[in-house]
């Protein structure tokens, strides 16, 4: 009675192969169950001719003079005979045998169950006893046992087997089937009992704990998937219930009654979690019904907790009926939920629940009718559910992989589209930036024409107007000065580029060619320390600013410095590798740097405005014999590594 875990997708899925496999396994289980023998064999020895004389039981000690023996058949449960009785009961099996055991081979004895604890005597000889025959009792009710007995323990003629059973009224006390005879036959019977009473339950326990652990970890990683959490609780409570079936002791409980109360509470918890899981699996919530079911469960728990020994059997019976009713009604109602659902895994789980209905009806009928023979098929539920969940998980993993592959393909397509859009956006931004630079250059050119050439024209007009004599040489000098100013303005506006050069070498090449020719004519030595690659990739505006500062500085060197040596370098800042430094030095006569701050030196003041506009720093140091102009591009404000 184990559920499986959550799935929330609604894609189409063909379950034909899974359903065929599931039906095949169910048929195999059903055939194996019906093929199991249900007859109770008391003697399985071909060498001894044994004749059963009597099987009887009594609540009194067998050594008492007055005995109240009652003839019984095995398996026997004394609830109907001695209602409400808890304590020791003796069983006595007598038979006569004539054995031809010349080879002195051992004889095997097997007992299906002793509920709850007991001890076994053969012809007044103790062959076994439980560890505890008083509360807390040992739990032998689900533990088949067998012993290899020496022929010396048997009599030729009448033999007697005495078995003391200590039972509890509410725990179906009594004695199970017995087999006595050849070891190979009896051991085969014992292995058959062990398979259905212990091994299948152990497999059930391992499967439940495994699924509980896996789904609990999944729930921890994805807490919003409440289905996994409910399935983990369902498997955990069922595992505890199965462990209590397999356990030989009742620690930490002090009595079998308290232990049975706890076990019934676990079974109710399991059924409630199972129902909640199945609803969450189908993406359904019935809050009012869930509150009602939990309220009834709490009331039953309280009734079981306070029940006395006289009313405990009724309380446990009510709890058992509540569990059975919940389980069957949920399995039936889930068929309607599956019909309304479009999820194939929900419909597959509904098929599993159909099988659970058959298993539940079969075992509950055996319990209610108190059939002592046959096999309970509930232990098969966990392995079958494990297989069902494995199939669902395998299909879900395959489906999720397909979803992931489709998502990756769509993601790659979206990335490519985004790249194209981003490239177009960057191209547009670049064009806007170039247009903005051109506009700024035009504004700058207008200022240069107004402040530079306009001032020269006014000064020339003033000189001509005031001069009494004006010869040809003076006139030519004025025209040359105007020509030079106009060329400087034209040259400063002709270097606009739309892209940043790939390397500083390409950036410096036109400047170097223009000024080196003039330097050579004036016998000025120039050193150009330009790296092969940009220390930090500049933007277009920064690239143009460096070009203008270099042009203006070198023009001033030609006009005013009278220098013989000039150094032009482009390096990284000493203390900040992410900052780029343009340095120009000469050994001329120098000038007064304070004129830059007051605005008296128009060219240097224009350079300062340009550098500040890009967030850089302009440093000017000048004295006779050494003038240094340093431009630092600050990375705190401009990330030069980003392409433009």
- For the record, the CATH architecture of the largest domain stands as Up-down Bundle
The assigned structural class equals alpha+beta
Named CATH topology of the largest domain: Rhopdopsin 7-helix transmembrane proteins
- What is the helix content? 40-55%
Our measurement of the CA-to-CA distance between the termini, rounded to an integer number of angstroms, reads 66 Å
Number of strands: 18
Silhouette: rod-shaped
Mean pLDDT: 78
What ranges have pLDDT less than 50 throughout 5 or more consecutive residues? 1-42, 494-498, 637-644
CATH class designation of the largest domain:
Mainly Alpha
Walk me through this protein's architecture.
This protein has 644 residues and is an alpha+beta fold. The protein has 3 domains: 16-35 and 197-406, Up-down Bundle (Rhopdopsin 7-helix transmembrane proteins); 43-181, Galactose-binding domain-like (Jelly Rolls, Sandwich); 498-644, Heat Shock Protein 90. The protein is 54% helix and 16% strand. It contains 13 helices and 18 strands. The strands form 4 sheets. It has a 6-stranded antiparallel beta sheet, with no helix packed on it. It has a 5-stranded mixed beta sheet with strand order 14-15-16-18-17, with helices on one face. Strand 14, helix 11 and strand 15 (565-572) form a beta-alpha-beta unit. The protein is rod-shaped and about 165 Å long. The two termini are 66 Å apart. Mean pLDDT is 78; it is low at 1-42, 494-498 and 637-644.
